[in-house]
Benzene 1,2-dioxygenase subunit alpha
Amino acid sequence: MDVAAGNPARTRDEDAIGTPPASPTLVPAERYYSPAFAALEIERMWPKVWQIACMVDHVWQPGDYFEYRCGPYGVLIVRGDDGVLRAFQNACRHRGNSLCVGSGSGLREIKCGYHGWTWDLAGVLKRVPNRKGFGSLRMSDFPLVPARVEVWEGLVFINLDVNAAPLHEYLEEVPDDIAWCNLGEFRCYATLTVDVEANWKTIADGYSETYHIQTLHPELLRCVDDIHAPQRIWGHTGKSDQPYGVQSPRFEGRLSDEEVWDAYVYTQGALMGAAEGTPFPADERLPGQTVQDVIAARTRAFAATRGVDLDWADTDRITRLHQYNVFPNMTFLANADHLTIMCSRPGPDPDHGEMVMFLMTRLPPGAPHTKPTDIRMSATEAEPGVVLTQDIQLLPGLQRGLHQPGFTHLVLSSEERRVINMHRNLEHYLDLPEPERMTDGGPSVKT
Ligand code: FES
Ligand SMILES: [Fe+2]
C-alpha cells in the first residue's frame, strides 16, 4: 500500500520548508528575556492586538461575566440585561480598584468593593456614595472605559484599542479557509491554564512549527507526515496542515499498519474514543482502505455516540490537522471532529508565562450551553496528553538556555517561518529601530 494515500500534499510535492532562503533568519535572543523588551510589548503591542479571552459559553446569559487578564491588563467581559456583550477595562473610575475578579453569573450591577461606586452592566455610572464630597461630579463623565469585544465561532476576542480594525479583518483568510469545519458547533468543556517558566513567545514558538516533531515527539512521528505539511503565511495569521494516520517519511522503510495505528492510539486515541492499547481492528478494514480510513470510520462512530453526524466528512477531513496561528499568541488545531485552541500570555516577569488550552468537543446543533470548567495548575502537575506534556516539560530548559551569554541569536529556518512571521509582526507593533531587528534570511534561491 502506498504511504502517500490520502495525502494530497505529497502529490503536490509541497513540504514544510518550501523554497529555502539564501541564509537563516537571525532573531536576537534578548527579546525572550529582557525586561525592557517585555515593557515595550506591554506598552506598544498588547494594547493593540485582538486576543482570545474566553468562550461565548462563559458569558452566554445576561449577568454572566468573565475577567480576562494579560500581563498587567485586565478586561471585564459582561453580558448585559439587553443581551449585548460588552467589555470594559477592569478599573474603578474612583481610585482604580479592580471591579471584578474571576468569572461568574447573576451580576445585576458592577459595584466596586472599595467605596461602592456602582455602574450598570452597560457601564453607566449609577451611584456614588457621599457624592456631595466631590463637589460637582457629573455621573456621565465617569462611565466604565470600554474595550472592544467580538465573537467568532463561539470564541470571544477582546482588544483594548477601541479604534482597532474589526476582528474579521484581523483574522484575514482564516475564517474562509476553515469555514467547511463549522467550528461554531464545537463547545468548550474545560480550559486549562498552566503556569510555566518561559516567556510567552517561547511557549508560542512551540506551536508554530513542526520541525521539532522528529526529535521531541518520537511517538507522534510514527503517525504524522511532518514533511508534507505545507505552510502558508497571510499577515497576522498563518497555517500549517499535516496528515495524521500515516507515518513520517523520515523512517527508513515502512512501518506496518499496526505500528502506525498503535502510535495514533497512544498519542491521540481519545479523539476516536479508543483506550490505550486498543489493537488495530484489521477486521473492520474494507478492501482498499488505509489506516487513515479505519481511523476516520472509528472517529465517525465515536462522534455518533455523542449524537454528532460526521457523514459529511471524508477521511481527509477527519485525519488532516489544520493548524492556524493568529498573532500574537494564539493557535488552533482543527479537523472535522477535533478542535483545540491554545494561547500563551505573559507572566509576572519575562521568564514566566501562561499556556492556556481550551478543550473542545463537537456537539449536535442545538445542544445546551454550559459554562466551561476553568482549571489552573503548575507545569509539574499538568499532563494534558503525551505530546503536550513533552512540549511543556521542554520549556524551562529552553528559557534558561536563551539567557546564556554566548547565545546571541535564534537561527531560524523557513520551516520555522510561522515563528519568523510572529517576530515580523512584533517588530512592526514595537516599531523597533533597524539595529534591533532580526536579520532576514535574504531572497530565496533556487537550488
Ligand atoms: S476605588 Fe472604587 S469606589 Fe473607590
Ligand atoms: Fe510539540
Notes: The CA atoms of residues 245 and 292 lie 5 Å apart. The radius of gyration is 24 Å. The domain at 51-163 is CATH 2.102.10.10 (Rieske Iron-sulfur Protein).
